[in-house]
Design brief:
The chain crosses the membrane at residues 714-738. One of its GO terms (molecular function) is DNA binding. It comes from Salegentibacter mishustinae. Residues 854-911 form the HTH luxR-type domain. It is a single chain. The protein is α+β, with helices and mostly antiparallel strands. Among the domains are: 617-716, Immunoglobulins (Immunoglobulin-like, Sandwich); 717-842, no CATH class; 843-915, Arc Repressor Mutant, subunit A (Orthogonal Bundle). The protein is built from twelve helices and 65 strands. The strands form 16 sheets. It has a five-stranded mixed sheet with strand order 59-65-64-61-62, with no helix packed on it. A four-stranded antiparallel sheet has the order 1-28-27-26. A four-stranded antiparallel sheet has the order 2-3-4-5, with no helix packed on it. The longest helix is centred in the C-terminal third of the chain and has 87 residues, at 718-804.
Length: 915
């Protein structure tokens, strides 16, 4: 029968928690949640579940909730024990002593409690505890042992003051089980009306009721009845009734069309099949924490139990069943085998057979056992003390010189074997009952694989691989060589297999194959997808592997079909000695460190299509200052965003796990542990958190998104950005203003420079003009002076000539008159005034400055100074002053004395230079 189609790409998920399992039967996976794990009181009175799969439990310390990720305890304001819990829409109704109300989440995801007692007004409630809550026609009914109350979502009113044990809605009627009075229903006027034909129930105390199809199942302490809207009938199953007498019924749940789950006070859960009239019991001996079942509820194939001590979950129809020995007698199982209609277990304490759910050790089989091997219809045992085979219920020794790991049949030989022992390889002939030790292979050998009829490969427990050739029918070795693992690979726990007629070597990390042409190992390309996966079982065209990292299981037929069994089952495998055995078309047995598991592979594959995967949700968002509303996108202040905690809800389902992926300014991803995602030191900006539920095929089965944003720091806020923009604009304006100012200043400087240059040009022109004028005047003055000097010189010469010949003139008076006239012409003051005026125009303040320094100078001294200033010689000065050259020299001498000049100082140069 074909197990797989190309459409099936299955990843088997076993998320099992196993504690305190002890049984003589195979049991489904049972998960225990103790009071230490949920951190509340041990006693749990009732249990319910919402549409998403979140579990709510009525606990001695308050309301417990479990969202698949973490437990949360919500105490009542008065700290009272909660006796009942009921989920209706978005409210969780609870009942306790003289108190009932509901819990509801606020916008931040936090649960808060609203008491309904104030709505009773002046009604005087007795000392009542509320043990049951249900919904009928949209209204909520609360039941105590003394009364029934109705809540229409507006008001509370008492309906009936009667002593009742149970209420249930059946065929649109609210039924009440009155103490030893039978079943009644409420009519349209809320009056009690008794169901007809209840003779069977007379004087019976009804404990619980459940609906199965169209029938009503009714339970008393020791009996089970069925009501079909007309008649009552007793379950005619003496075995069941005897079990109920021993167990004492407490709760009923219908499960499917023919099964009923019965929660008891003394013996856990009875799983009863009414069609087959068979039942199994799940109690403290085979997995439950406690035998007293106070409530249960079903969701997605999981049965949740509220117990007198703890909370349990049963995967009631799981294709995986377990046998677990908590006594330690069996120990860790190293191998399994089926032989002669018996199941044999090889463990560290001996060899056992398992028949009719009973475990029995084989005589003489005590001690560590490594391997069971069926060869030629004989069950061989590789034991710490030697090699044996099973005969009936006893072990018959093959050889006991040393312990052995494995026995292998020789190719092309009849009943001849090689024993891989602690000290080497021995050849065993079953037909002649002889043992031959091969001297050349004198080291420990775990197992051997034959390359051909004369060559074998031997795996050393610690030193890797050896290849050996044999002659003389495997009695002598022709060669023994050690095989190096490529790239310096690990030699310890190296294993050798034959896969598709290829020698395959696995060293815990990589797969290699032997290339006979190159006589070396090379990477086994076809096995690359199974890196770090050790081969456990080769079955026709399918294979089982175990992961060396997490000890999980993986199944494949190399036709795109891969099945994974990680988690708790893998954690129970015997590390480095994992073993799986097939028995039948679809049943596989897995050796565990405390028993074994049985997997119905066909059922598991069929169940994959119906596996429910919960949708993950965010249930709380916290920063350093508190929690945020989940109705709107949280906006976190930057100063509070250094440490963010996001609480997730992921109700129990068939998912392999929950991962997250954060997109935004920072990108992060990882697994969600304990329902909390901690994000630290995120940058400001917008973020999108994706929650990814990993389905049973290792794909993303469901996902949800949650967006939030982190405000920028104050210095990057919008207001500050506006300030920065304004500052930037102000800076631009300031730079512009400064540049304009600088440009204007530069322009003014240029204008000033131009004006200065222009003025300088004008001044230079004016100066040149003035210089020209001065030079011209100087020339004119010089010319005038020279003319005057020449004139005076000539007059003086005339005067001198006349003086020489004055006696020759007849008219002496006339002569004298002429000489006086010439003398006046020489000493003409008008010429001096003209000279002085012109001289002052050329040498302004000359006389003023010289008089300031030499105030005793006379007019005649000043006249001499002016002529000297003009750089005139004594000869030129004499006629101007009307004296002789000698007189000029004398005058110069006197002037020098008045001016107290050094003898070496030239008078003319002194006057020109300083005045």
């Amino acid at each position: 029968m074909k197990l797989f189609t190309p459409k099936i790409i299955a990843l088997f998920v076993f998320v099992f928690q196993y504690t305190n399992l002890f049984s003589q039967q195979l049991t489904p996976p049972i998960h225990n949640y103790s009071s230490t794990s949920y951190n509340a009181a041990s006693q749990n009175w009732d249990i319910d579940v919402n549409e998403e799969g979140v579990i709510y439990v009525a606990n001695n310390q308050g309301l417990l909730s479990y969202d698949g990720q973490s437990w949360e305890l919500l105490p009542l304001p008065n700290g009272s024990i909660i006796r009942s819990v009921f989920v209706y829409e978005d409210k969780i109704f609870t009942g306790s002593y003289k108190e009932f109300g509901y819990w509801k989440k606020d916008e931040t995801g936090k649960m808060y409690y609203t008491s309904l007692i104030p709505k009773l007004g002046k009604y005087a409630m007795q000392s009542e505890e509320f043990w049951e809550i249900l919904e009928f026609k949209g209204d909520i009914y609360f039941r105590s042992f003394g009364a029934i109350y109705k809540y229409d979502h507006n008001t509370i009113e008492p309906v009936q003051n009667v002593v009742s044990n149970k209420m249930i809605v059946y065929k649109d009627r609210l039924l009440l089980a009155l103490r030893k009075k039978g079943l009644y229903f409420l009519d349209v006027n809320n009056e009690l009306e008794k169901l007809p034909n209840q003779e069977l129930l007379e004087e019976e105390m009804i404990i619980d009721m459940a609906i199965q199809g169209r029938d009503l199942i009714i339970g008393t302490r020791e009996k089970l009845y069925k009501y079909n809207d007309e008649t009552f009938s007793l379950y005619e199953d003496s075995n069941l009734l005897q079990e109920l007498k021993r167990s004492e019924l407490n709760h009923i749940m219908s499960f499917g069309d023919d099964r009923v789950l019965l929660g008891t006070v003394k013996n856990g859960v009875i799983n009863y099949d009414s069609r087959e009239k068979t039942y199994t019991v799940l109690n403290r001996n085979n997995g439950l924490q406690n035998n007293t079942v106070l409530g249960f509820v079903e969701k997605y194939g999981n049965i949740w139990l509220s117990l007198d001590n703890g909370i349990d979950r049963i995967e009631i129809d799981s294709p995986v069943k377990f046998y677990t020995d908590d006594t330690g007698e069996l120990g860790a199982v190293y191998d399994l085998a089926f032989h002669n209609n018996k199941m044999f277990l090889a463990s560290n304490t001996g060899v056992y057979n398992f028949v009719d759910d009973e475990l029995q050790i084989i005589d003489g089989a005590e001690g560590h056992t490594w391997n069971l091997e069926i060869l030629n219809d004989t069950l061989f045992v590789n034991h710490n003390t030697g090699t044996y085979y099973v005969d009936g219920n006893s072990l018959i020794p093959v050889e006991t010189a040393t312990g052995s790991f494995k026995i292998s049949e020789l190719p092309y030989a009849n009943k001849e074997y090689l024993i891989s022992s602690y000290t080497g390889i021995r050849k065993f002939s079953h037909s002649s009952d002889s043992i031959y030790e091969i001297d050349s292979l004198n080291f420990p050998v775990k197992n051997v694989v034959f390359e051909d009829e004369n060559t074998l490969w031997a795996a050393h427990p610690y030193e890797g691989l050896y290849r050996s050739g044999f002659t003389d029918n495997f009695t002598k070795t022709s060669f023994v060589e050690k095989i190096a693992i490529p790239d310096g690979g690990n030699s310890i726990n190296t294993n050798i297999f034959e896969i598709n007629n290829q020698l395959a070597i696995f060293n815990g990390d990589h797969w290699f194959k032997y290339n006979s042409f190159k006589d070396s190992l090379e990477i086994f390309e076809e096995m690359k997808p199974f890196r770090k996966h050790k081969l456990l079982l080769k079955d026709v065209n399918s294979y089982w592997f175990s992961n060396t990292e997490n000890n999980s299981l993986k199944f494949t037929d190399f036709n795109k079909t891969i099945v994974v069994a990680p988690g708790s089952l893998g954690n129970r495998l015997v590390k480095n000695y994992e073993r799986i055995l097939k028995n039948g078309d679809s049943l596989y047995y897995v050796a565990l460190n405390d028993g074994f598991a049985r997997i119905d592979l066909n059922k598991y594959i069929n169940d994959l299509e119906n596996i429910h995967v919960s949708k993950p949700q965010v249930k709380g968002f916290f920063d350093l200052d508190g929690r945020f509303s989940l109705e709107n996108k949280p906006v976190v202040p930057y100063k509070s965003s250094r440490d963010l905690n996001i609480y997730t809800s992921f109700p129990t389902s068939g998912a392999m796990g929950l991962k997250y992926r954060l997109r935004g300014e920072d990108t992060l991803s990882g697994e969600v542990n304990n329902g909390v995602i901690n994000l630290q030191n995120l940058d400001h900006g917008n973020y999108e958190l994706e929650l990814l539920a990993i389905g049973p095929q290792a794909n993303i089965a469901k996902k949800s998104s949650f967006g939030f944003s982190i405000k920028p720091p104050w210095y990057l806020s919008n207001l500050m950005k506006l300030v920065y923009i304004l500052i930037f604009l102000a800076l631009i304006g300031l730079v512009y203003w400064f540049n304009q100012l600088k440009l204007k200043k530069h322009q003014l400087l240029l204008e000033e420079k131009f004006e200065k240059e222009h003025q300088e040009r004008i001044n230079n022109l004016e100066k040149e003009r003035l210089v020209s004028q001065i030079n011209l005047k100087r020339k004119e003055l010089a010319n005038t002076t020279m003319v005057a000097a020449k004139k005076n010189e000539m007059l003086m010469e005339i005067q001198s000539e006349l003086n020489k010949d004055k006696n020759s003139f007849s008219n002496e008076f006339k002569m004298k008159h002429i000489l006086n006239k010439i003398n006046r012409a020489i000493k003409n003051k008008d010429e001096w005034k003209v000279f002085e005026t012109n001289f002052n125009e050329l040498h302004e303040d000359f006389f003023k400055d010289i008089l300031k320094n030499y105030p005793k100078l006379t007019n005649k001294d000043l006249k001499l100074c002016s002529y000297l200033k003009m750089n005139l010689t004594s000869k030129e000065i004499a006629p101007l002053m009307g004296i002789s050259v000698r007189g000029v020299e004398v005058h110069r001498y006197r002037l020098r004395k008045k001016m107290a000049l050094n003898k070496k100082e030239n008078l003319t140069n002194f006057l020109i230079k300083n005045y």
